[in-house]
Structures are given as C-alpha cells and as structure tokens.
Write the structure tokens for this entry.
Amino acid sequence: MKLRARTIGMLLAAVAAAGLLHQLEAAAQSPVVKPGDELRPIYAKPEDIADGKQFAAASCAGCHGPDGISTTTGIPNLAGQRPSYLYLELKAYQSGGRSNVAMTTSVRFVSDDALVKVAAYYASLDPAQPPPGPAPSYFDPVQAGKAAAAACAGCHGETGVSNTPGIPSLAGLAPQYLAAAMEAYRSGHRKNDVMKPMLAAASDADINHIALFYALQKPSRAPTPAPGDQQAGKAAAVGCAGCHGDQGVSGTPNTPSLAGQDAQYLIAALRDYKNGERADDTMKALAVSVQDSAMDDIAAYYAAQAPQAPNVRAPLSTEEWAQRCDRCHGINGNSSDPKIPALAGQRVEYLQDALRNFRTHARASPEMAAMAGVLSDDEVKNLATYYSHQKARAALFIALPNKP
C-alpha cells in the first residue's frame, strides 16, 4: 500500500499486529505522554513518513525487517500496525513502562518527533499476511483427554462410571483432585501395580486433559453391590461431612466427592488409610478406630447417595474466545481504533508471549491481565494461532480538523 496525500494531511494506517494489548498501559504509565499526543501520528504528512522510513531503516530494520515484517522468532511485525499504539508503546519503552533492554536502548535518546514519524511510517505499510496453507485445527483439551482416557475405559467404564467392584468411578470428580491422584500413582506415592505403569509415560498435560474429560462427564451411581447397612453408615459418616460434604458431595476441589462411588473401592481406601498404605494423616486418624463392619456401612451409605457434577466449565472454543477479544481488537483482530493494536497476521510466538506476559503481569494492563489470567496454556496457543492466520486488512484513519 502506497501512501497518498490527502487534502487534510492525514495518515494512512494499515493493519497488522504488533502486540496483544487491550488498553494501552503505556498511556497510563508514561507521564511524558500528554493527553492527545498519541494522535499525532495520524496527522503525519508524506514528508514525515519519509523521515520515519529513514529512521526505521537505520534503527529498526535489523530486528523488525526492512518492510516491518519480521522474520525473527519472537520479534513482532510492525507493518500496518495502528499508529497511536506504536507511538505509545515506543514511549513506554523509553520511559520504562515496558521492559526490554534492546528496545529501551534503541529509543532512549530518540526525540518525540522521531517516534511520531517512525510510528506513522510503519502504520503506512502493507501488513503481514497469514502463512499459506489451510486454516489450522485448534487443540481441544476435552477431546485430547477423551483420547488419552481410552485406555482407562476397560476398568473405569466408557464415561468414567465403574461397572467393576473395587474400581472407582471417575466421572464428575473435580479435576484438581483427579489430577493429583494420578500424579500420586505416577510417582509411586499411591501404590497400585496397574496404575503406575499406565501413567508412567503420561505428561502433566495428559493428566490434566484426562482429569478435565472425566470432570465433565455426567456422574451417576456405580451399579456395583454395596452390602453394608446404609442407615448405620449414615450415622458413622457424620465425621466425614466436614471434608467430603453433606451426603458425600464435596465442596472443595482437592477433596473427592464420595456420593455414588463404588462401595468396594471406598472400603479398600479406608483400609489403606488405616494401615498406612495410603499416606494421609487426617484420614489415618479418622480411619484407625473404624471397624471393618462400620467401613462396609459407610461405603454403602455413600454408594447410595446421588452424585453431583462439580463446578467445572467446559472450555470455550477458540472462536468463542476470539469473539471476546474482537470486541476491542476488531473483527478477526483488525482493530479500528488507532490506539488498540491489530492482531491479524501477527507472528504466532509473539502473540503467545504477549498473552503469557499479561497473564503473569510481566506486561502491565489490568484489562488484559483479567482476560489472559483465565486462559490455559492450550487456550493461549489456540488464540495465538487463530489470530496469526487471520487476514490483515488495511485501515484508514482520517484526522478530522477541530471544529471552530
């Protein structure tokens, strides 16, 4: 896209993505930016753009590419980025509002006029476009968990409801508890000759995906025998409610629900706590005085209770997350606000790093921290991939004269 002079001397700005920023923290953090100064690049004239091009060739092209399209991992594309956003981010690096040694060194002694011009220059360029090839598929952690859990179905049932006495149901258990239990089997802290080799090759991500899959399955009572006395078990289980909840429905993610669980599994677990085979000081103290007959009764009581699903949301799809991001960053990441960055066509690894930095507050923005703070690693990767494959579209910002 070539720059064209307009009668009111405005700036052509095109779209590409240089950062994932909802509200520009630099504007709030940098006292050297006066209100309204961020709009100065919009008023740039063709000769200002030419000056900005000379500065960019000397100081920026080595990292960001001669045409503002980066070929270096982790370095963002600047071509076609929103002009006010670029200017404000440069000012943030200059004032210490953003931390990057290379960028701070590059702009530390640069005049404000030069920053305006280089921002205007990059905004005038054709933006980077998505990589060639078909649109990517996005990782689905629930489907990944289902695939990884296929090997578990023989014992725990297709949807995690056990049909085998002595084998626990997994459906509807909170993912925090289930992931911790699998890790305990994998590490050997919980003894089971079948579970340890089953999980030996599982990664942390595999375990989390399996736990999420089972947490989202509809729980139901295990259709296995429970020979104890339910009424006696109800009385004996009074001391359990503080942790496992009334009627065995836990309100704590790290404490398992017992409602509807296989009775033989519950009995075996109580015995293991009693004799120290399963290490838990609280459970051992409670189980040590429980007689075998009382264990049968407690297990029968809990097995007869109606299980309830935990408070776990199914993850939003990448498209659903993108709809939320598009409210500020524009349709498909093509921002229509000169102060909010476009995301379309940006380098995928840069977008991932930006989201992670917002999530950890390494980049300061209350709005983006709130948005990114709830994203999983899988969702971060999916969103970055999504926007990197969106077509970047040029945007024209016309600086209207002030009314008399």
About this structure: Strands lie at 11-13, 395-397. The first strand starts at residue 11 and ends at 13.
